[in-house]
Amino acid sequence: MKARVKVIGILSDTHGLLRESVVEALKGSDLIVHAGDFDTPDVLAEIKKIAPVFAARGNMDRGSWAEGLTVYDLVETAGKMLCVVHDIHHLSLAPAAAGIAAVISGHTHEPEISEHSGVMYINPGSAGPRRAGKPLSLARLTIQNGRLGPEILILDE
C-alpha cells in the first residue's frame, strides 16, 4: 500500500507582497511554512486561507501582529521534525542532535537546498519584491514513506 504524500509549501521574504503565482503554487499544500519577513499581517492572513501555517519571525516583522511569531520553532509532520528560522545564524540548537529532519530558513533571498550531517537545509529564496540578480522563488517539500523530496520552484514573472 502506497503511503499518502504530505505536501509542504515553503516560502520566505514575501515583504508584504503575495503574488497570484505564489498562491497558485501553494494550493494543494497540507502545510505552509513561511520563514519570516512577511512585513505585514496581510500575507500571513492570506496564506492561512490556503492551509495551516507554521512560521518564524523575520527581522522585518514588527508590531503587535508579529508578537506571536518566534525566532525559530519546531513542528512535527508526517513523522518528521521540521525547524523554521528566518536567519540560520539565529538557530541556537544543533539540528542533527535534536532529531530535526529539515531546517527551513530565509533571509538571504537566495534559493538553496543542501544536506549536512543528515539534515536537509532548505532556503526557498524570496517570493516577494524583485531584488537585482535574484530569482523569485519558493520551495515545495514532499514527505512520503519517511523520505524528504525538496524542490525549488522558480517563478516566471
Helix proportion:
under 10%
**Straight-line N-to-C gap:** 40 Å
Shape: globular
What fraction of residues sit in β-strands?
25-35%
Q: Write the H/E string, N to C.
A: EHEHEEEEEEEE
Q: Over the alpha carbons, how many angstroms does the gyration radius reach? A: 14 Å
Question: What does the average pLDDT come to?
Answer: 94
Task: Give me the secondary-structure topology.
Layout: E1 6-11, H1 20-26, E2 31-34, H2 41-48, E3 53-55, E4 72-77, E5 80-85, E6 102-104, E7 112-116, E8 119-123, E9 137-144, E10 147-154
Parallel strand pairs: 1-2, 2-3, 5-6, 6-8
Antiparallel strand pairs: 1-9, 4-5, 7-8, 9-10
List keywords for this structure.
157 residues; mainly beta; five-stranded mixed beta sheet; 10 strands
Descriptive overview:
This protein has helices at 20-26, 41-48, and strands at residues 6-11, 31-34, 53-55, 72-77, 80-85, 102-104, 112-116, 119-123, 137-144, 147-154. It contains two helices and ten strands; from the N terminus they run βαβαββββββββ. It has a five-stranded mixed sheet with strand order 3-2-1-9-10, with helices on one face. With 157 residues, the protein is mainly beta. The model has no long low-confidence stretch (mean pLDDT 94). Strand 7 (112-116) and strand 8 (119-123) form a beta hairpin.
